[in-house]
Amino acid sequence: MSEVHTTARVNGADPKKPARATSPKPPRERGVRIVDAPLTEPATNNGLVSVFGKTYLLRLLVQREIQARYAGSVMGLFWSYINPLSQFFIYWFVMGHVMGAGHSIANYPVHVFAGMIVVHFFTETMGAGTRSIVHNRTLVNRLALPREMFPVSAMLVSLYHVMPATLILLLGAFATGWTPDIGTLFGTLFGLGIIMILGTALALVFSVANVFFRDFGSAVGILTNFVRFGVPMVYSYAQINSKFGHLAAYYMWNPIANAVLLFQRAFWVRATPNPAHTLATGMPPHLWRDGFYSVIVSILLLIVAQRIFNKFENRIPERL
Question: Are 39 and 29 in contact (CB under 8 A)?
């Protein structure tokens, strides 16, 4: 008993009082600082908001895709001028001369080319956007970034290739007497804006669907064939109106058709011999209203597409 008291006094404790239980100190290794702090929530993905909050990464993805497309090419970006020109001459010769569509449409080459730019913008966004996640599977699995960034970058690459085609259209329109007005500005912005929003929405849905079923890549290719002839590109809205009468109003429910007509309002109408007559007979009576409705519908579809994408996003890595 005396030994116990002696030991307690040596350690500086009163032998009559019970010793307090002390919690062991956390180990501390040399060169390692241990911080006792609460854990924080990881950064959340806010969908498209997060994408445009990382503009640097988005710009790198767009540059990477453009460089990869022309890697090893002698002419490089010059191909972005040759491709739309080749398509234009095919449509112009086959539809305008062989099938005689150009006889009933004033300044048929500008009419076709204006519609073709919008259609090509949409189909390229859909095709590249559908393949975007599968094509970038390595980046998807290794980098912590919003996966919506890949369909969005595909849309921006397609928009980048709209510029050379629009430049060719401007030269052709000026050569045939085109005089721009305020409708040119709004028609261009509305037309391209509808395709940007609608194309991104559909690319989000089909990109995640293509991860689970590769058949969607082929289905999109078939869908684009219907798009080319489901809009007034090789034919005019006046022909639809004369053929279907009051049913032509339902034709304007197609946002892509509205985008094509708005783009033609910007370039084709003012390049015809009588713009006022062309505007009255070759354009729908409520073009701007229908264009505004198309923008609203496209935004609603984009919201729905974002929700669908979020629902299946966490399953993407395991399926890749």
Answer: no
The packing angle between helices 108-135 and 255-267, to 10°, is 130
Q: How far apart are CA 280 and CA 241, in angstroms?
A: 12
What single string gives the DSSP state of each residue in 208-256? HHHHH-THHHHHHHHHHHHHHHSSSSSS-HHHHHHHHGGGHHHHTT-HH
Cβ atoms 130, 216 nearer than 8 A: yes
Tell me the pLDDT band of 6, cut-offs 50, 70 and 90.
Answer: very low
Q: In sequence order, what are the residues at sequence separation of 6 or more whose Cβ sits closer than 8 angstroms to the Cβ of residue 302? A: 48, 197, 198, 200, 201, 204
Q: Where are the alpha helices (DSSP H) in the chain?
A: 2-10, 48-52, 55-69, 79-91, 108-135, 137-142, 149-175, 182-212, 215-229, 237-244, 248-251, 255-267, 275-282, 287-312, 316-319
Q: How far apart are alpha carbons 128 and 66 in whole angstroms? A: 12
Rounded to whole angstroms, the Cα distance separating 269 from 190 reads: 16
How far apart (Å, rounded) are the C-alpha atoms in residues 4 and 10?
10
Query: How many angstroms separate the CA atoms of 286 and 263, rounded?
Result: 15
Non-local (6+) Cβ contacts of 247 within 8 A are: none
pTM recorded for the entire structure? 0.81
Locate the domains of the chain by residue range: 47-68+75-319
3-state class (DSSP) for residue 124: helix
66: which 2 tokens? 């453009």
Count of other CB atoms within 10 angstroms of residue 166: 20
Give residue-wise pLDDT tens across range 102-143. 678 888 889 999 999 999 999 999 999 999 998 888 888 887
**Residue 147 dihedral angles phi and psi, to the nearest 5°:** -75, -15
Q: How far apart are CA 295 and CA 206, in angstroms?
A: 20
Looking at residue 190, its amino acid is F
Structure tokens at 64: 């990477």
Q: Find all residues with CB under 8 Å of 176, minimum gap 6, and list them.
A: 107, 109, 110, 271
